[in-house]
Amino acid sequence: MAAAVPLRQPRQAPRADWDRFLALHITTVIDLRYPWEIDGRGRIPEHHSFRYYNLSIEHRPYDQSQLNPDLEVASYLADRYLKVAYDGADEIRQALDVIAAADGQVAFHCASGKDRTGLLSALVLGRLGVSEDDIVNDFARTGLATERLIAECMRTIPTASWSGPASGRRRPRSCVASWPNWLRATDPCGATLPDSSTSTTPW
């Protein structure tokens, strides 16, 4: 089973969180962040129980908090995610290959566990034949944590501010509603996953 696990500021994770993570018996961790993000915020500590891969799927960074307040969020994010899928096709293919070859549970994450993690989750679910509604509903759940993530950003980065669209604080269902058909109609990665026993589960 593949588990989508957001590991924010891993060097500062409380001992209880680390013990909880190890108790999941994860054998593979895929970090989807840029190397400079890892340099600034740290990575999950090394441990003999899992292999670690850094596969940065996004090639053009952007700051959602500083977008035009009048931006139509759903279409903007949908376009962004498709660009990430094509820009990062090699890294996404590697990630899918790693997931397919894993001999146990897999955790993949980015900085907040919504955009890049959500894209890879949608790709995994789509290739396993999960229904369009279930993929969209799974993605939409990331909005439940957005307010908390923004508050955490404001607290940990004194200079941070949010001037972007208010609706950008949540991921509209419509920004991912077109993904399933696109995933079935195109093959940006070419990887083959095993059977439908694989699932994505937020921790």
Number of distinct helices: 8
pLDDT < 50 stretches = 1-6, 194-203
CATH class call: Alpha Beta
End-to-end separation in angstroms reads 13 Å
User: Superfamily at the CATH H level?
Assistant: Protein tyrosine phosphatase superfamily
Structural class by helix and strand composition:
alpha/beta
Q: Could you give the order of the helices and strands?
A: EHEHEHHEHHHH
CATH architecture group name: Alpha-Beta Complex
Radius of gyration: 16 Å
Output the keywords.
Protein-Tyrosine Phosphatase, Chain A; about 40% helix; 8 helices; four-stranded parallel β-sheet; disordered N terminus; single chain
Task: Show the helix and strand layout.
Blueprint (H helix, E strand, L loop, with lengths): L1 E3 L10 H9 L2 E6 L3 H7 L9 E4 L18 H15 L1 H13 L3 E5 L5 H13 L4 H9 L5 H11 L22 H7 L18
Task: Characterise this structure.
The chain is of the alpha/beta class. The protein has eight helices and four strands. It has helices at 15-23, 35-41, 73-87, 89-101, 115-127, 132-140, 146-156, 179-185; strands at 2-4, 26-31, 51-54, 105-109. A four-stranded parallel β-sheet has the order 1-4-2-3, sandwiched between helices. The longest helix has 15 residues, at 73-87. The protein is globular. The model is unreliable at 1-6 and 194-203 (pLDDT under 50).
